[in-house]
Amino acid sequence: xxxxxxxxxxxxxxxxxxxxxxxxxxxxxxxxxxxxxxxxxxxxxxxxxxxxxxxxxxxxxxxxxxxxxxxxxxxxxxxxxxxxxxxxxxxxxxxxxxxxxxxxxxxxxxxxxxxxxxxxxxxxxxxxxxxxxxxxxxxxxxxxxxxxxxxxxxxxxxxxxxxxxxxxxxxxxxxxxxxxxxxxxxxxxxxxxxxxxxxxxxxxxxxx
Length: 208
Hints:
Order of helices and strands: HHHHEEEEHEEH
Number of helices: 6
CATH architecture of the largest domain: 2-Layer Sandwich
Distance between the termini: 46 Å
Number of strands: 6
Mean pLDDT: 85
CATH class of the largest domain: Alpha Beta
Strand content: 15-25%
CATH topology of the largest domain: Yope Regulator, Chain: A
Largest sheet: 6 strands, antiparallel
Structural class: alpha+beta
């Protein structure tokens, strides 16, 4: 499917089996040089002749496949598709930080900034983290935040350091390999509304 041709060709089944058992798997880049290195590495790992050098089972193969798919998904394209017809949503890339900032206009003239960033790269299924600031994580607001978290319909309230200071954020995680534009857009709106609600509830202000 990657190259449009089969890896081995033979006139008989016996010859084909002999090739498979005796010849190395062809280098896919010889026929499709534009493939990302992560894809070719994954393929070589899956077809390795030595069982110790390939996936132990389907779960391990699926985990690495999703991780690689997550790396090659174009978040810019997903955002462009998600908000193509939404004039109240503006987004931009923070190239240096590998993040995206989305400004969502809300009710009564309020607005909320939402950030999309990759989460911990050691997570087996690579994740996109969508979060928005609800306000400074002041000690006297922790009980209120926990009570709010118990009834939060979307996302969860967590504490994240922003510019070196702890803040309450509303956050959701999505698999980079599975999330589509519709789901991403829906999540951004949910996070924006609920983070704004948390901010208004905790601080009575609109600064994020």
